Amino acid sequence: MSNIQNPYARETISLNGDWHYIIDPYETGFLTMFGAENTRGYHLNQTPSDHWASEYNFPDSPTLKVPGDWNTQVPELKWYEGTLWYYRPLPKIETTHKRTFIRFGAANYAAVVWVNGEEVVRHTGGFTPFEGEITDLLKPDGNFLVVKVDDQRLKNGVPALNTDWWNYGGITRDVLLVQTPTTFVRDYVCQLDPENNDLISGHVTVDGAVPGQTATLSIKELAIEAVITLGVGESKFSMQASPDRWTPDSPRRYTVEFRVEADTISDQIGFRSIKTDGENILLNGESIFLKGISSHEEALTEARRANSEADARAIFNEAKALGCNFVRLAHYTHNDFMTRVADELGILLWCKVPVYWGINWESTDVLNNARNQLTEMIERDRNCASVILWSVANETPVSEARTAFLSELVRTAKDLDPSRLVTAAMFMRPEKIEENGETIRTYTLDDPLAEQLDVMGCNQYLGWYYTKLEDIQGSRWYSAMNKPLIMSEFGAGAPKGRRGAPTERWTEDYQRSVYEEQLAMMQGIRFVRGLSPWIIKDFRTPKRPLPGIQDYFNRKGLVSEKGERKLAWETLADHYKKDLLTRDDPS
Ligand code: GCB
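Above: inputs. Below: predicted complex with GCB.
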């Protein structure tokens, strides 16, 4: 069963605020001394005065802010990876004629939730929402919530052990109590029909409906008022309509309302089409160049997880200032505000799951986990006009097992959402050839995964990891796929304020040189239809220890971790002032 669609538009009680916590690296509160799950664990919220053998006490323990990563709130948690318990009393909740659900925007990585000592939900995956119904567990007063979050990295996790980002732990997104009538609209999809753009179509799922009952869909500004007869599960609808198209320049949205019995849910939905035609990406039938930037889910001016609407606006406003119409949300699903604010501001998005580098491609459990994270992401955001690309992977090594695994994810994405494009960031195959006594560097896009994608992504660090600055020009790029390519990463590292010659590594000047050479080279690649350089801001990562330069930050940001712009920022902004659909002498 899918999560409740558009929960913020419902009657909600925010549980954000100060929650008590206990650090528990040995899982003393969860396991017995012999390793079984303990029925008398911390979820019961006892104190030494309730039970003679209790050695913990939530109400006397310190507090953390929810939402928030734990690493940046308390010095002793900066490097912590493991189990941490959260506790808070629940406010008084009016329950007459209402159902109550608890909804977590995300908790990294594995979470178990109890209300009044009863388990409500277990969830795996650090970046997608989950919820559970607590209607029958609530008492008139004195309710409490206990959550165990474990952010240990796992060989069989998604992502697995190795990532170039900070493993921010904890309840990193909003926690809401969502209240609904007994019968309510659980989920809906309402989009321009990908097969026939003269139709708006989709489906609705009503929780508690009797087959044959009806729901109503209305879009007043389009004079639509339709009665949908409900069946079991998803009930389809389709109707003639010609809405103004949503575009980055004019992100028009319509108020779409579903009603059933006492329940009404209202959304703001933009209508647009997205397709490919050979090497072109067509937005509403017109060829578009994606002027983009990549972003982690870190606040623009602070080194912590982003989690609010204000954080989303800050990131997108900086992207807009650069001249972007596109942002690649790396390397996992970002919070709800990102897609909602992008809808409002007219930013096109690449959204992805954390299938990154070395995943256990052989395991069915790992595939199921990845598929579940993909499903939760798509179900959350498939009404967002901003989202045009679902990405199933980043930089994964070519093998039969990996391609079979990723093909399953492509299929899942297409099944759940036939209206959007599927992509992945891949590697290219480098070669050197001799021509008239000269060495030419060639790069070929021939990863077999590309055959299943609508749009190819390629991450390449010419001028940084694998070739020198002077080797960028003259590179030749080949693809026989007849598909558009987004150069999904390129860049160079430089701490803000470190200056030097244009050829001196780790300076802002060198970073600018790499941008100049790369941007010029890419103008000569026929099938490039988008760029999302790495990355909007410097971000925390344990993989970058170089003292005085990195200090555990990846320094490829166009702005520092405090939001100060570097020289390459202007270079990209100038480039984005050009019409990039006009290619230079394309090969
Ligand atoms: C990549 C990865 C990204 C890294 C980046 C880098 O290819 O996709 O996660 O942070 O390179 O800076 O090396």
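The pocket of GCB is lined by residues 164, 331, 394-395, 459, 489, 534, 554, 556 (CB under 6 Å).
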